[in-house]
Amino acid sequence: APYWSKRLGINPLVGQQASRRGGMVRCEVDKDRVYLTGNAVTVLEGRLKISVAALSGEEARS
Fold this sequence. Notes:
Distance between the termini: 33 Å
Shape: flat
Structural class: alpha+beta
Number of strands: 3
Strand content: 25-35%
Largest sheet: 3 strands, antiparallel
Strand order of the largest sheet: 1-2-3
Radius of gyration: 17 Å
């Protein structure tokens, strides 16, 4: 979203999912964040446990 928003000079952007199921999403760029707004159906719920080392890429180097 930041790339296309800057390139097109548009904020917020609206995207359309071009499939049989379809869908729309609104993307608003605000400094270093992107806010996504739209409708969704929950198909999976759960929890993820990710180590700090995994986030920094240190586990991949070990």
